[in-house]
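Revision sheet: structure tokens.
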Amino acid sequence: MRIARRPGNDAPRYDGEVPENTLRTCHTSELAAADLRAARALLDEAFDGDFSDQDWDHGLGGVHALVHDTAGALLAHGSVVQRRILHNGRSLRVGYVEAVAVRPDRRRRGLGGLVMGALERVIDGAYELGALSASDDGAGLYLARGWREWKGAVGTLGPTGAALMPDEDPPLLWGSATPDPAHPLLIDWRDGDVF
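Predicted:
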């Protein structure tokens, strides 16, 4: 699809074909209440009801990527929020990916990759490192895109201080930063799932 701009007009016009889907990125503060309700409903459907209020809260306050069809229905969503990871004496600003989902009847059509491409650009432009916690079903998408599995220990800096979490699945990482697996990643504390 080619997008052309008319002189003196910032609105795109489409030459040739009408796009099947549109991708929009915006901050949580720019989303209308209806957008937020649609995203939450999509996540509830995609996670078969296993998406808690805390999970939803974790995905707010950052940049969202939303894919809509030509009728305006939300097909896919993801967000990236800022978190901090203490590692080897440094506090790293991390773009943490949350709430990635594709409507069940539209899976395996590239929509997850479209969302992740947008979120990866945000991470590349604003953060030292990207991180996410992948479900078993989603890990393949991320690994195929170049995300890499953390091989060191993980933990959190919580209300009682630093605590290692030996039973926690390691996060996947994105970007050119190369943390040293000899030192743990200690992520900031939050209610619900820490990773």
